Amino acid sequence: MLNQEQTLKAVQVMGDMFPDAQPSLRSRTPFQYLVSVMLSAQATDVSVNLVTPTLFKDFPDPQAFANATETEIQADIRSIGLYRNKAKHIKAASQQLLRDFDGVVPQTHHELMSLPGVGRKTADVVLADAFHIPAFAVDTHVTRVTKRLKIVPESANTLKIEQIVMSKLPEDLWITAHHRMIYFGRYHCTARNPKCEVCPLLDMCETGQQRLGAADTTAPLKK
Ligand code: SF4
């Protein structure tokens, strides 16, 4: 397992590789950001950004979503996977925001996760990116990267990954580390073809060393 110092080093190297790593969902308000994150489950940020300008023009705030029918919301997000469920959750979350929080997006895990369709990852992303409250969200890229680099054990679930990474990094780096790992996973340590042969983290990555060793059995493993 990588220790605290090695984990910090890995995140710094990712920052050198992707100095512009930052949120890619576009929105104007915390509420719109919440809706965008809810839409992004099992969908790309690019596909979400394509529908949200029209969606937020038609429904700019919780009141507008609460007053709309699910069919009306669906019409604006039809190109997004699971759009029926997402329309249902966004309308219900908007109604609950109005009822329990005066229409204002809350700023705690507990309150955010009380909203329909809002899980831990969505809550973490909203806290971090909409409110700049230290949090570490775990998605598919973060899961893959932290396991390959052995920052966390292979058996770790998303909650465990979140806890281990936060214990190994200073709090003021949690949000940045999340974005760097996403870029690193999206463009370099990709699911199918990680660029191990040109990876600046190869020296500390047993997974990469094993992959390259398996690809060329005549080459010695890097230490
Ligand atoms: Fe990912 Fe390969 Fe780099 Fe390891 S060496 S972090 S598996 S790209």
TrEMBL record:
Keywords: 4Fe-4S, DNA damage, DNA repair, DNA-binding, Endonuclease, Glycosidase, Hydrolase, Iron, Iron-sulfur, Lyase, Metal-binding, Nuclease. Binds 1 [4Fe-4S] cluster. SMART domains: ENDO3c, FES. Its cofactor is [4Fe-4S] cluster. It catalyses: 2'-deoxyribonucleotide-(2'-deoxyribose 5'-phosphate)-2'-deoxyribonucleotide-DNA = a 3'-end 2'-deoxyribonucleotide-(2,3-dehydro-2,3-deoxyribose 5'-phosphate)-DNA + a 5'-end 5'-phospho-2'-deoxyribonucleoside-DNA + H(+). Its EC number is 4.2.99.18. This is Endonuclease III. It comes from Loigolactobacillus bifermentans DSM 20003.
